[in-house]
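Because showing beats explaining, we let one protein speak, sequence and backbone structure tokens together, and leave readers to judge.
___
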Amino acid sequence: MKNKQPKDRYQILTNQVIELMQEHGTGWTKPWQGSAMSGHKNKFSNKLYQGTNVFCTAISAYAKGFSSNEWGTYKQWKEAGYQVQKGSKGTDIVYFDKLKIEDKTTNKDKFIPMIKGFSIFNAEQIDGYKSADKYIKPATFNHIKAETLVNNSQAIIKHGGDKAFYSPKFDFVQMPSKEDFKGTETTNAKQAYYSTLLHELSHWSGHEKRLDRKLINRFGSNAYAFEELVAETSASFLCAILKVNNKPSIDNAKYLNSWLEILKQDKKAMMKAFSLAQKATDYLLYYSNEMREVA
């Protein structure tokens, strides 16, 4: 009997993202928008999923049509007296552990990060269980919460002109006037403004005085495109938390091919992007004057 090969979880995640980008093109963040990626949690610990696992649960719910944001392992459901429906396929999530090895140079023990994972099942895959916690609900965007986050960041924000950008050299965000933003079928003018501003603030969080993501990169380079991916992902996280019904950045068209190239070259790139995006999100939510109650 052959030993079962362990899952290459980096490659699995990368393939999911590549498939999503190719399917949705410049609108590839569609499955993440609004409440669809908000509030996914373990039913039994009541802990929200973070970083990469926000994506894993959101895309699984999107693909399989789940309306519940409650999840648990097979063992957790069973111990609670429930049974996973026959034939149900679990959703893979990941976590990092430390592997102890001996350093061949020093002969001393050292620890290296090692990705591990397990499967979880949505409440709608459980016989006899009805979830009272649904993520599909009317948007309740409150611009005051978004404005509080912006003010507490203490970022320098200038208005005028027709472009939105962050200048790492001079450390300020430039935005068009609020009156210049227009609504769409799914996004009103205020949401369009804050969606764009949260993207630029995500860049702002990476300044060397804050999270130090090395932002001075040549336009058109893979490093520049990667930072755009981090900011777009962070903005998606923030929009979900603040219930901003955002739309994918218009810049996605410029960076899509670069993102696909990066992912195909480095299977760990997407997980790096999610990790950095989660740190940017946490910085803006929790470390800007300790604003904690935003949702």
Remarks:
- The chain has two domains: 39-127, 143-287.
